[in-house]
Amino acid sequence: MLEQNYLLVDILKKRTGGVANLNGISYQLNYAVLQLLYLNIPGQYVQLEGIEDVDLRFQTDSIFCQLKYAHLEKDRLTSSKLIEKNTLKNIFEVYQRGVSAKFKIIHNHNVSDSNLKPFITQQWNSQIVNFWNQQLPFLNDNAIDFLNKVTIERLSEKELDNEVNKLLLSRIDTHITSYIALKNALFVNAFNWSRQRKKVFRKDIDSIFSQHIELISSGIQNDALKYRWIQKIDFEFVTNQDVRDYFEGKAAQPVHIVQKLPVERPHWKNKIIETIENFDVIIVKSSSGQGKSTRAQTKLSLKRRV
Description:
Number of strands: 6
Oligomer: single chain
Strand order of the largest sheet: 5-4-3-2-1-6
Shape: elongated
Radius of gyration: 28 Å
């Protein structure tokens, strides 16, 4: 078996077309999810696989978005590829209908082709306009107006993923639901809606959020939250709160920390601060009664005030 696998290694390395196609679909669906999360204007909707890959429809105008994914940087977008694939010709067909619309081409790599740069900067000179007039003779006298309605936007896979995560985290309570599970739910729905060429409104997205949170709430609940073994820490300063119990040797509470009653331990405070800045999770280990919780809560209190 090992020998047979070795004989096929070179063929395996060459056959990456399927992976490239799947990555391209994933890129398009993630961009669809991003635009779906942006839905917040009355009358606005997103149509998937409509005129273009992702159509942003407003009450009076539209933005038609086409995703151009390149698996490798060497395959990035060029003017010749736009011409060969009839990308601009297809866009011009919509432009000719006189609709109030703009057009976006979203690509995951930097664009180095000088004839494409003006689609990013929107600064056209006669030489480049002439180039496109020669390549696209159907433009005629509409060249400048048409070219100004088409933009190219670079958006890497990482940037796209980060933006989706940021929007999700701004809309949900991470103590109640997992943003990763909700993100997967949106991705699957975007796939199905694309197959249906569905017009998606804000209410459709709100429904997914509600269903997901309800599903999580009806499922297994963390016992630590259920029995209130852990809870949100409140560092609000209350001037009339009695803090004398601190001097009875009881464990430090947030009110004690806010009023700076625990003795400072600069070395350990700085060590914890430095570690938190560099790692997602840290473990403070010591024997009982040495101030582990107090040190951790002191850091949280400082962060809250900053």
